[in-house]
Amino acid sequence: MQYVIDTSILVEISERYYPEVFPSLWDKIYELIENETIVSLVEVQKELDKGKFSKEWGLVHVNSGKKFFKDFEGDEILGIMEIIELDCYTEKFKDKNDQVTTLENEWGIYSEVVADPLLICHGLYHDSTVVTMENPSKGYNIPHVCYELDVRCIGLKEFLMENEFKF
Predict the structure, then answer these.
(1) Which of 6, 20, 115, 128 falls between 20 and 30 A from 53, CA-CA?
(2) What's the rounded Cα separation, in Å, for the pair 21 and 36?
């Protein structure tokens, strides 16, 4: 099984599981990258570039032989069409700032490049599990769209348990 990792997970790991305190966790992360059990996307790396963890995950990518951040592949673009065709793509909901929006506004061609729909497409076309901190009860987001497209989506706790992280 392969897992495709969202920006929110990488930020959460960096904020809570310091390499100096949890070296075995980081060793396990490198092992899973080496086995290509976990990957992320270049678009996630671009999202990280806006924050303070860009350098840290950039080093993980380089130290793993550049196996971690993958380019979006040609066939995966067909998944975008599947997302656009979902009813929830144009339905209104309140975002985290209590503003009315739609996925079309959040992920559409007029927004900045966002990794969310591309992670879902990767999951769809590679039978990967999407791992995110997003809550499915908070409007339309990654878990909701994954459910609509029958793409498996889990949180950090499930990911750590499934991959037998132990300290």
Answers:
(1) 128
(2) 25
- What lies within 8 Å, CB to CB, of 48 at 6+ separation is 7, 10, 11, 54, 57, 58
Q: Residue 144's pLDDT is what?
A: 94
Contacts for 88-92: CB closer than 8 Å, 24+ residues apart: 88/140, 88/144, 88/145, 88/148, 91/140
Round to whole Å and give the CA distance between 160 and 167.
11
How many residues are present in the chain? 167
Reported as a single tens digit per residue, the pLDDT across 84-106 is: 999 989 989 887 788 888 888 88
Q: CA-to-CA distance for 102 and 97, rounded, in angstroms?
A: 13
**Distances from the Cα of 107 to the Cα of 113, 114, 141, angstroms:** 8, 6, 10
Residue 101, token pair as written in the block: 């929006």
> Is the overall model pTM greater than 0.90, yes or no?
yes
